[in-house]
Design goal:
The protein is α+β, with helices and mostly antiparallel strands and 494 residues long. It is 49% helix and 13% strand. The strands form 2 sheets. A 6-stranded mixed β-sheet has the order 6-5-9-8-7-10.
């Protein structure tokens, strides 16, 4: 994240470098004209140093501009978009340092090909404004990219969990019991309060809140044992890892920085790993995936064994499969919907190795109704309506993407968002089917698993005989109309 001081130095250096190049001055020539050392001029241009007033006057005179121009936020037409970017929320929404970029390297990037970079930056800013992309949107996208770079496996956190269990002498008993989590937090001088928050109507949508002043973790009552265990395990992580730049409520209301979002992710990762220890979970997954037949019950049994939610179990799979099974072409989706309203929304997604289908889109189009994620939601809604719902539903599907060679094994688990809610949530993990997956998971060849041709949205789908279609293929029709126009224009040339 760029500080205000970083921005001031970068903008000043950017102007000096641009003016020096316009006048065809070398570093040495500018240094001689201003009486500064060559290294000091270089540090100014790379945003490392900001000169004092007398040196700014010398630079202004040598470069043929006035003092005010150098220290202001105004610049030439070519430089202004870059300066606007440096001062925008956009640049601070991207955690440059986590991707190995420094302010100096950014400045070098911006000034090496200013015309092209300026046009590119202007495009990004216009897209950001047109689609009302918030800083939080960039933070979340950056976090997903950061997870992808690491294959969503963080060895340092896994090691920290092992150290913790050893230091606190946790026995290898599963599932982790609530009293153990509570007593561990008490040893960390944290008090747990399950009454106060539940009595405040304005806080009913928050799961928990940690009061730093009172060293108290306030928890709402309307949650399952698995959900509450996660909240306690996550709080243990914050204290054990010494994380201070953190959110205090769940779900995060505002992300003041990318580091805060990243720290929340690390604590959540630690909490889930604490409830599902790596070594145990890997052995359990090996037993399940090597079965010759698809077994939906085995996945629910896994949730019961660790007393975790389906989402926690699926998220843990995205940590374990790339590192221990070399299955890294995968995606994770959380999708919520209300069947009565026929509305479905992707509320979380993760893509490893590439951008897979399906994916969330900001065009308000209708997601393919052939997805197992949506079918699972409809299945649960039907059970709830008939008052026959007893437990989450696990379903599998081989998804063949229309007019591509991409096939995915998709495993989806769906359940009501909360007791009495009309909202249903499904979590899905999609694994690209290749030779490695077929060797690792023999049950993929089970003919009991349905195979369906799918697409991303109805609007862009050319499967004309689709019985599940929710709206006409308007984007396909537009393309066909354009083709007819192109052919007619060609005829004019004949």
């Amino acid at each position: 994240m760029l500080t205000d001081n970083d921005s001031v130095r970068l903008i000043f250096g950017l102007k000096v470098k641009a003016l020096r190049q316009e006048k065809n001055l070398s570093y040495q020539q500018l240094a001689d004209k201003t009486g500064m050392s060559l290294s000091y001029v270089h540090d100014i241009e790379t945003g490392k140093k900001f000169p004092k007033a007398d040196k700014i006057l010398s630079l202004a005179k040598a470069l043929g501009v006035d003092y005010d121009y150098l220290v202001s936020l105004r610049a030439s037409k070519k430089l202004q978009p870059i300066i606007d970017l440096i001062n925008s929320d956009f640049i601070n929404a991207i955690p440059w340092e986590h991707f190995g970029l420094t302010p100096a390297s950014l400045l070098e990037l911006f000034t090496n090909t200013p015309d092209k970079v300026t046009a590119f930056i202007s495009t990004l800013l216009k897209i950001s404004r047109s689609y009302h992309l918030s800083k939080e949107s960039f933070y979340n996208s950056a976090l997903r990219s950061y997870q992808d770079l690491q294959d969503n496996y963080f060895e340092d956190i896994e090691d920290a969990v092992r150290r913790f269990r050893k230091e606190y002498k946790w026995k290898e008993i599963l599932p982790v019991e609530m009293p153990l989590l509570e007593s561990t937090l008490q040893k960390m001088d944290v008090t747990i309060n399950r009454k106060r928050m539940n009595s405040m109507e304005a806080l009913q949508d928050l799961r928990s809140y940690y009061s730093k002043t009172h060293k108290t973790l306030f928890i709402n009552k309307a949650f399952s044992s698995a959900q509450e265990k996660f909240l306690l395990a996550r709080e243990i992580a914050f204290h054990y890892l010494g994380i201070t730049d953190r959110p205090f409520e769940t779900i995060i209301q505002h992300s003041d920085s990318f580091d805060m979002l990243l720290n929340n992710f690390k604590a959540s990762y630690f909490g889930v790993a604490l409830l599902m220890p790596e070594e145990n979970f890997v052995e359990d997954i090996k037993r399940i995936v090597m079965q010759p037949k698809w077994n939906d019950k085995a996945w629910l049994d896994l949730c019961t064994r660790y007393d975790v939610t389906p989402e926690m179990m699926m998220q843990r799979l995205t940590n374990i499969l790339p590192n221990h099974f070399s299955i890294d072409h995968l995606f994770f989706l959380r999708l919520s919907g209300e069947v009565a309203k026929d509305e479905f929304e992707i509320t979380k997604e993760l893509h490893l190795s590439q951008l897979h289908n399906p994916y969330a889109n900001a065009t308000h189009e209708h997601y393919c109704r052939r997805w197992v994620s949506i079918n699972s939601i409809k299945h649960i809604a039907g059970l709830v309506a008939k008052k026959k719902y007893k437990q989450p539903v696990v379903e599998a599907q081989i998804s063949q993407y229309w007019q591509t060679h991409n096939r995915y094994l998709c495993i989806s688990i769906a359940k009501p968002a909360s007791r009495g809610s009309s909202e249903i949530v499904s979590v899905t993990i999609g694994l690209m089917i290749d030779q490695k997956l077929l060797q690792t998971m023999p049950f993929v060849n089970d003919t009991a698993i349905p195979v369906r041709t799918v697409h991303t949205t109805c609007e862009r789908c050319g499967i004309m005989d689709c019985k599940e279609r929710d709206v006409p293929p308007v984007e396909i029709l537009k393309e066909q109309q354009q083709e007819r126009i192109n052919k007619a224009l060609q005829q004019l040339e004949e």
